[in-house]
Structures are given as C-alpha cells and as structure tokens.
Amino acid sequence: MKAICVFSGGLDSMMAADLIRAQGIDVLALFFETPFFKSGKARKSARAIEVPFKVADITRRHLEVVKQPKHGYGGNMNPCIDCHALMFRIAGEMLEEEKAGFVFSGEVLGQRPMSQNRKSLDLVAAESGLNGLLLRPLSAKLLAPTIPEEKGWIQREQLLDFQGRSRKPQMEMAQRKGITEYPTPAGGCLLTEKGFSRRLKDLLTSKVDVETGELELLKLGRHFRIAPHTKIVVGRNKRENETIRSLAGENDTVLRSVSVPGPTVLVSGKLSENTLDIAGAITVAYSDAGGLDASEVRIKEGAHESRVVFVKTRDKVEFRRYMI
Q: Which part of the chain is the NFACT protein RNA binding domain (predicted)?
C-alpha cells in the first residue's frame, strides 16, 4: 500500500509521514508549489526523514482560487480553506497515477483557529472529493474514522489525538526519533503577509491575465502604481537588480542609472511621456545622485534600442504617494 502525503515540510507533516510509514505504508511526500510558497525547505525536510519527494506546480489552478475564493480570505490574501481543498483534490487526482490508496496530511485539530477547526477540516474533506480517503493521522482519534482505518489499511489505535496550538507533543515525538532540525511554523506562505498581499491585490485589480513573472516580481524591490495600468518596480540591491532584469517582459521598459550607482527600474503596463518622466525621476531619486542637479539614465523600451537621457534630481519623498 502507498499513500500520498500533502507535505508542507513543517514538523507536523514530517511526523505524520513518519507515523504512516511506521505502519508499513510507502509514503510519497507531495509538495504543491506556486510563486507564493516554494519547495526548498520541504525538500530538505523530506530528505531528513528519508521519504520520496515530489513537487507539483499548481500555479494556474491556485491563482484562480486566490482571485475568487469560495470561502473567503484569512487575515490577508490567504484563502486557506479553498487552498487546502484544492491541494487535496489534486492529490486525489494523482492517486491512480502514483498507484496510491489514500491521501493524508499533518493537519492538527484546533492548531489554526480558522482553517483547522473541526468544521473547516470537515468542509475541506468534503470539497476535496476524496470521499473518505483523506486521513489526518496526528488528530485521527478525535475525528471520524476514514476509509483507510475502516478497511484496516491503517490501524486507528496507532494514530494520535493531538489537538490545539501547542507543538510540544510533535517536538517530543521528533526528539524520540532523533529528528532535531525542522522548519519554524511561520513564514511558509507569502499570502499571509500584509505587504505582499497588498501588492498582489493591486496587481489583480489592474490586470485580468497575470503572468508568473509578475507574481515573482511582487517579492522584489519597491513598488509604485503611477497610473491605473502602469506600475514601477525599483530594485534595492544588486541581487534584486539582476533578478528584475531577468524578469522583464518583452513589452516592459527598463531604466538604469548611468552616471552613478543606482537601481534597476522596471516599468510595466501602459507607457506615456508622463509615466516615463516619472520613472526616470524615480530612478534618479533612488540612486546615489545625491547633490547632483541631474543624472544620466539609460532607457530600454522593449525591443527598441536603448537611449540615454538627462533627468533632473528630485527628492524621493515626492513619489511616496505612488508607493504600493
């Protein structure tokens, strides 16, 4: 028998995977990746407990859920209930391909007050379409028996009754198994972060069709909405400048300071003489132009040849009203 673990890479999913494997079940740790959560830490966690690891990119399907969640958002742009239901639904779609019998996760009853209370867990299970094939081994004794338990694939008495927000039982369990390194509970999903959510909401409000590169840009630099359909991203350091250049689309405009060190600035959306003037002024304002009256800026509009213009130095305070 084989089972798919919807694997976040956190301590809970690590312990759940180990618990199911201890019953003689082959476990596949499946991580769902989008620009909002990446697989690096989860891969390391799977390696630590020595289970096979697989990544599935669900960006397109997940973005539709983020745009219009049936059950609403959490504190920011995080549609946790809809997101969990989608992940379990996709895991269910993969059961036949992976020759697996059921799906499980590291969810703990009551650990998250909104998305892991009994009502939410039942709702997610119902909307996943798994029809009894979704097991939460860490809290199974507190929940209704599932098909894997009823059919004897899993021994219910060997499952657990963890409940509440404390992770002390999981930490003690990990210690007994000699597992000392695991990710901290917070920081896994960018959709729970206020600043990132503000940028994402702005992007989804201004565009119908969003590209993956635009989502990646939300993680970088300073963002300015200078017109309803024109946005500027300003790099803050060398790494961000390089990444911004690599993410520039064929219709984007890239500005760089020539005279003095400064940021890479990307302009996306509708371009006009006024918006280009503002972009040039922001490029100089966030450069090392300092006491100079003006500074040279190189402008590259899409596939056109680049050109250099002189831009008057202005105080960056002038542009705060545009900041997202």
A: 221-323
